[in-house]
Amino acid sequence: MTTMDAARRDPPTWALGLAGLLSLAVAMGIGRFAFTPMLPLMLQEGQVDVAAGGWIAAANYAGYLLGALSAARTGWAGTRLAAIALALTVLLTGAMAIPGPVAWWALLRFLGGAASAWAFVGTSVWCLTALAQRADTTWSSALYAGVGTGIALAGLQCLVGGAAGWSAGALWLQLAALAGVLLLPVLLVLRRVRTPTAPPRAAAATQAAAKVDGGWGLVTCYAVFGFGYILPATFLPVMARSVVQDPRLFGLAWPVFGITAAISTIVAARVLRRVSRLQVWAVSHALMGVGVLLPSVWLSGWSIGLSALLVGGTFMVATLAGVQEMRARAAHDAPRMLARMTSGFATGQIVGPLLSTALLHVTPDHGLDLALQAGAASLFLTAAWLWRAVSLSRFPEVSHVR
């Protein structure tokens, strides 16, 4: 293929960035997080209770862990990994409309979690690689706004459905249809993207990955991030429903969360031009910790709204800073190290719902509050660690990778 033929075949930079954004909107915003705004409706219909919701959520996080661990082992190119995962996401989201026992929904969410992890790793690899070849510094950060965009779209769909009195089953089918519509332009771009295949699973690569400066410290902080944010990310609409009965009001918590997450990535991209990634990551953990703590000490419509702003406005910033930091330090084996970070994140997410479920059995009135306080404490500790690491120059300076 000549250079001119390749130029005609390759999609423009804006198409690459938009496809990555929509890919994350489908995989994460809908496939990964749609259960959060759906849970209050399923509770209202008596399909599940809060404890069962915790187990279903934990199954999704376990699937996410499996997907993160297996993504680099498939040997597939990032484009193929993402395409297969996104198609599975549409199917599994629609299957949630089929009634069944809690175990059935847990199985679907487990498989959906695995598909989400594949899509996140695959999209991060193919899209960031393609954008780096174009020396792009805008879309490589903006594409992570897709997660918040998908969350906002799913939340608005559930808000409209809840206000209209639609059944949970009908809403699951509508969410699957929305995911399918968003997927179409992604597949059109993926057909034209030329990316390298996944890296060989050689011992040398594994040894090199293990020598990343501060690698395990970063993975640990990312795992704590998963543990700290997941409880409000799972139960925020449920907590809102406990203080505001009007679905048109309590249903706003999740769209606000998503819109704030989308906007925050655009703001963070500008901030990262002047401030180090570790500093941005540390501040994100501190602010997120405040948002996680608030509903446990002051439960009201205002505290829920402020929590949605603080957590929604920082969780994608922490993702952006963490992923870029690891890519800068593990340029020789970025897919493997990104999968390792995603695995740590998934492990933290599993611990969160399991802890809340256990505490709810021990102390039904305060179990969720105690879990939120534990999550906030862990975020404050890692914020201090990251900030201290910068001040002590624990990590050598690495050029910014966007």
If you had to describe this structure to a student in words, what would you say it looks like?
- It holds the Pfam family MFS_4.
- This protein has 402 residues and is mostly helical.
- It has one domain (9-391): Growth Hormone, Chain: A (Up-down Bundle).
- Helices cover 79% and strands 0% of the residues.
- The chain is built from 18 helices and no strands.
- The chain has helices at 3-9, 13-30, 35-44, 50-71, 78-95, 102-133, 139-142, 145-164, 168-190, 203-210, 215-243, 247-250, 253-271, 277-297, 301-312, 315-329, 334-362, 367-391.
- Helix 2 (13-30) packs across helix 8 (145-164).
- The relative contact order is 0.15.
